[in-house]
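Supplementary Methods, section 5.1.

A reviewer requested that the exact input to the structure prediction be made available. We therefore reproduce it here, unchanged from the version used in the analyses.
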Amino acid sequence: MVLKDQEFKWWRREYAEHRGVWPMYEDFSVFLRLVWNHLGLPEPTPVQLDIADFLQHGPRRGIIMGFRGVGKSYITSAFVCWNLLRDPDMAIMVVSASKIRSDDFSTFTKRLIAEMSVLRHLQAAPGQRDSNIAFDVGPAKAKHSPSVKSVGITGQLTGSRANLIVADDIEVPGNAETQNMRDKIAELVKEFDSILIPGGRIMYLGTPQTEQSLYNKLHARGYESSIWPSEVPDEEYYDRLKPKLAKFVHEKIEAGIGFGEPLDPKRFDKEDLQERKLSYGRSGYALQFLLDTSLSDADRYPLRLKDLIVMPLDSKKGPTSVAWGPKPSGLYHDLHTPGLDGDAFYRPAFTDERFADYTGSVMFVDPSGRGTDETCWCVTKMLLATVFCTLLRADKRGYEDEVLQRIAKDAKDQNVNLILVEENFGQGMFERLLMPHLRAIGHKCAVENVRSSKMKEARIADTLEPIMNQHRLVIAEQVVIEDDEQVAGYTPDKATQYRLFHQMTRLTREKGALAHDDRLDALAGSVAHWVEAMARDAQEAAEKLYEKDFDADMKAHFRNQVHQVKYHTKPRRKSRKRGFASLGRR
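The structure derived from this sequence is encoded token-by-token as follows.
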């Protein structure tokens, strides 16, 4: 129930007269309860109150890492109002990944000032700045910097001054997926030190978006973290991140709350968290809800972009020789590279000028019905023990005629000899749906169903890791470009999950490691055909070599036998001649 003005005045007068202290003024958690009451929200949860305590009593340079949906921004917006209530001359800057996001923060703060009885005296007076992106509070003295200013991380930071800088979600999927982007953000935030007034505070709010999160790098710059995961962490997680975990988490563990139990059940109960875990995938959930970036350990991820060779490819002919070599001069700067630290796309170190026809062309189709999964098809070709990926496409329309027609057209354009269909769709129904479209465009090729009982994550890793480690997988430059184009209509967080090369670099051998793996599964299925063929070729070569060695050994053996016969018989003939001659002379 919202307090009326007269009730609030009475409440304030009672505490001031009888206790000598106004709790709302001294204790931010009390003020936060009033804000929640004004917004019609339930009582702040224990986790939210612990975040409020960290904001009030925490370090001058701090990082609040809370799980998605905990209410970090709302709490900090109330904290801004509380600071202006205590000291109207403060200058506060709000920085976000985008100008829109930071403007939303300042607009919400301004509305609280206008709507809450205890804050209305802070509204801008005539002649003061009074916009949603920069405004003054009424009692503030004249100064160059506004009381509250919002700006995007790539906006005009220089020239401002602030007692408190709130960096609210400056790391998002759109600006943290490539190493260049991450490096740029890490450099931009250094400007905060030139903005901050001596004695001021910098407070980051966020959820890590990548394993190489900026928030991990800030510790080397003197920042202290406080982490609130969505559930009580297991023993391994607890031992690894113990110094960074919030005191509330330590209290829960000391109280005997079991691992995996929700840390804030009023916000997300166990069933809700389980649904989100299935949606995000194991690694995505670890980032967004457990705030665990330990998966950045490269050993957990067997597939790396730098092991690939990326170059323009023709659909009919390929280079007879291509050499891998990740030279700085061969680094792609203009392609989207969602790899881990130091991982990127590289051009070949050497390409033979001679080109030859591919010895075979295979398409693998991973069908899906309507839903969140994609129907994906990938074309790979073989030439001199090197696999060339010339096409990979995806479509969320399942098995509609337009999708089937495009698959058939791509098979014809790529001169595909064999189409492999993963048999997880209607017991061969997809094959029967596709065949009429192949006949309609006049393309003859074999269509076979394939099935695998092995766990998908392990199967993909076991297929791609050896051939990538040997640098025998070449990816067409156009495949990388189209991988981005085909997620243009997705939301930023979903676009990340659907990209082929994000799936590739985040794959582990754990079940459910990826929320979506359709594109990577199509690539692995197509490559698997050639891996088996190369294994057969290697076995045949070994058998031929064995036969050749056996023939050589037999010939050597016979030559030796003939030599031995000659060696033993020749002396006897000479002795006989000498014997007859001696008898004749006698």
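The first strand starts at residue 61 and ends at 66. These observations are discussed further in the main text.
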